[in-house]
Amino acid sequence: MKRSSTFLKLKEEERAYRKEIILESAMKLFSEHSFYEIGMRDIAEEAGISAASIYRYFSSRDDVIAEILEHEVEQGKKMQLERIKSGSPNLADVARGIVDFFITRKSTLQMLGHFLVNDEVEEEAREKFVRIIDQYQTEFEEMLLALGCTKENVSLYAKSFFASILGIIVSYKGHGDNENQSGNDKIYKLAEMAAKIFMGGMPKN
């Protein structure tokens, strides 16, 4: 019985390791090439497995993307928590944290947009994406509550604030000189301005 348990544990660890290799390979391809040109065959080749074998771990390209986004969201939350713990938190800090995360992650923005605007996303992957966003939304609401937002308004404010900051990044990141530091500074300033507007209008306890 003990040997069987050990064997199953090793199998699970091997599966998790192979999935991680596939995800890392996919992320590498998405960051180096056009997002829409990368398919499951390309990901499998980069990961060093057969095109048929990749489907043992992920049901579709959308499934791979949803899993990557889950990892990215976790990373983003860690970065945000570290920023907040380093001083007295305010909404401008939260806004800067969101910008910090996305400004160097073009492929992550594309993956997020893929789920937000594409009506042909595989249903199972879309459900996974919705769960990821819902969990992030819940934790984001807790952050706003800690900043004094009233409980009855927190869900609306969390959604609208995040959408506003994301909209600023998407709207201005690819414009003119926004790939250099001066362009990035403009994005940070707009995000901080949005934070001030939201703080001024946010119902507080």
* Low-confidence residue ranges: none
Continuous helix count: 8
CATH architecture of the largest domain: Orthogonal Bundle
Amino- and carboxy-terminal Cα gap: 57 Å
Mean of the pLDDT scores? Answer: 86
Question: How many separate structural domains?
Answer: 2
Outline:
This protein has helices at 2-32, 40-47, 61-85, 91-103, 106-117, 123-146, 154-172, 181-201. By secondary structure, it is mainly alpha-helical.
What does the model show?
The protein has 205 residues and is mainly alpha-helical. It folds into 2 domains: 1-58, Arc Repressor Mutant, subunit A, CATH 1.10.10; 61-201, Tetracycline Repressor, domain 2 (Orthogonal Bundle), CATH 1.10.357. Helix content is 75%, strand content 0%. The protein has helices at residues 2-32, 40-47, 61-85, 91-103, 106-117, 123-146, 154-172, 181-201. α3 packs across α4 and α4 packs antiparallel against α8. The chain is globular. The protein starts with a helix and ends with a helix. The model has no long low-confidence stretch (mean pLDDT 86).
SSE diagram, text form:
Layout: H1 2-32, H2 40-47, H3 61-85, H4 91-103, H5 106-117, H6 123-146, H7 154-172, H8 181-201
Give descriptors for this structure.
Arc Repressor Mutant, subunit A; 2 domains; 8 helices; mainly alpha
